[in-house]
UniProtKB/TrEMBL annotation:
Residues 1-81 form the ISXO2-like transposase domain. It comes from the Bacteria. NCBIfam families: transpos_IS1595 (NF033547). This is IS1595 family transposase. It comes from Tsuneonella flava. InterPro entries: IS1016-like_transposase, Tnp_ISXO2-like. Pfam families: DDE_Tnp_IS1595.
Length: 105
């Protein structure tokens, strides 16, 4: 994330100093029933992503090690970014593989 980027968060105290660190910071206060700020900021998209990642781990993988967590997160990112066109996932994935050289060439 580069300095000057906009970061949308909830009101967790840990995020309070983002503005001082050079980021534009917009917050939504879920504690008072607000889920969209006056500027239109929200965190529903990232919450949906985390929810999908957790369901994947609990439902498919059962357990992941910290060493490989980034791989599960990347898989969840791939699926999440294509959630509105699931029919494209398999052909797109298969197109990334190079054919093996034939032993008869």
């Amino acid at each position: 994330m580069t300095e000057g980027s906009t970061v949308n968060t909830d009101h967790l105290h840990s995020y309070a100093k983002l503005g001082e660190e050079g980021y534009r910071h917009d917050r939504v206060n879920h504690n008072v029933g607000r889920y969209v700020s006056d500027t239109g900021a929200h965190v529903q998209t990232i919450e949906g992503f985390w929810s999908q990642l957790k369901r994947s781990i609990n439902g498919t993988h059962i357990h992941v090690s910290g060493k490989h967590l980034w791989k599960y997160a990347k898989e969840a990112e791939y699926r999440f970014n294509r959630r509105n066109r699931p029919e494209a996932m398999l052909p797109e994935l298969l197109s990334t593989f190079q054919p093996l050289p034939s032993q008869f060439d």
